[in-house]
Amino acid sequence: MPHAIRFHETGGPDVLRWESVTVPAPGPGELHIRNRAVGLNFIDTYHRSGLYPVPLPSGLGLEGAGEVLAVGPGVTGFVPGDRIAYASGPLGAYAEERLLPAEKAVRLPPAIAFETAAAMMLQGLTAQYLLRRTYRVQPGDAVLIHAAAGGVGLLAGQWAKHLGATVIGTAGSADKAALARAHGYDHVILYREEDFVARVRALTGGAGVAVVYDGVGKDTFMGSLDCLRPLGTMVSYGNASGPVPAIEPLLLSQKGSLFLTRPTLMHYTATRADLLAAAAELFEVVEQGVVRVEVNQTYPLAEAARAHRDLESRRTTGSTVLLP
């Protein structure tokens, strides 16, 4: 019988349980898949902690890669044995086997390994919508990306540099700064040692950046607004340090008629056409070598709690994969 990580109450990593599960035959529009690798993402901790409430008990995880074992009635485009990857709900990627809506799966190119796919789908599709749709980076733009050595940060830095931007990042240590510089960043600010707002202003000759991509949240949000040029775009896409404070809309006017958005991947890939287009663009830059995907940590899936502790204490860099 296959196993999966489940939780029956919200809280810290200790609420995660390794349990036997029954996977029924796939229903209409469903795939029965065997996961070969599962992605670890900060949003998983939001579901586990209750920041993003889900009905309990629940599975966990949005991202994985594996192979199709069986297809349900009405499914077209997939057959048993196909290599697939996915990066959206329903929750349940932390599992050896699971059912998945066929519309959420994409066929994985032969050149991309399961571990690579599990490391890049959610974070890579996030980088794709941030850079190509939420604010479409143009050659010559200066951009600021927080958590430059994180999973999204390393992918987005390479991609933004490829698009012709001057890429500025923040990091918490010299080692993480060096890692970010090796992945496309022109400048990396050690936020524990220097004022990142003043440094961004200095690096841009006082002009500010076109866009801030902020997955950190509470600790960086207000400062990020002060890094923007007039008519700049503030993209708050994560809460690694906690939810951002409430603000009055007038503040955006006072700081330069700024644009503020709080996007999610689920809205940007809500239609099958959008998902396929985003995945195709991601696969293209990875296969061309423009964006290198590096799995810097792996854990047995049964030890997901340990992986969560390391992620939340910022002991990880780049992408982390859980292995069933």
Could you walk me through the main structural features you see in this protein, from its secondary elements to its overall organization?
30% of the residues lie in helices and 27% in strands. The chain is an alpha/beta fold and 324 residues long. It has helices spanning 42-49, 114-134, 151-162, 174-181, 196-203, 221-225, 249-254, 265-268, 272-287, 304-312, and strands spanning 3-7, 16-20, 30-39, 58-59, 63-71, 83-87, 97-101, 105-107, 142-145, 166-171, 187-190, 209-214, 228-236, 259-261, 295-300, 319-323. 47% of the residues are buried. The longest helix has 21 residues, at 114-134. Helix 2 crosses helix 3 and helix 2 (114-134) crosses helix 9.
What topology emerges from the helices and strands here?
Elements: E1 3-7, E2 16-20, E3 30-39, H1 42-49, E4 58-59, E5 63-71, E6 83-87, E7 97-101, E8 105-107, H2 114-134, E9 142-145, H3 151-162, E10 166-171, H4 174-181, E11 187-190, H5 196-203, E12 209-214, H6 221-225, E13 228-236, H7 249-254, E14 259-261, H8 265-268, H9 272-287, E15 295-300, H10 304-312, E16 319-323
Parallel strand pairs: 9-10, 9-12, 10-11, 12-13, 13-14, 15-16
Antiparallel strand pairs: 1-2, 1-4, 3-5, 3-7, 3-16, 5-6, 6-8
Helix pairs in contact: 2-3, 2-9
Helix content: 25-40%
**The CATH C-level class name of the largest domain:** Alpha Beta
Q: Rg, please?
A: 20 Å
CATH architecture of the largest domain: Alpha-Beta Complex
Counting DSSP E segments of at least 2 residues, the number of strands comes to 16
How much of the sequence is in beta strands? 25-35%
SSE ordering: EEEHEEEEEHEHEHEHEHEHEHHEHE
> What is the number of helices?
10
**Main pleated-sheet profile:** 7 strands, mixed
The CATH fourth-level homologous superfamily of the largest domain: Medium-chain alcohol dehydrogenases, catalytic domain
How far do the termini sit from each other?
A: 13 Å
Average of the residue pLDDT scores:
95
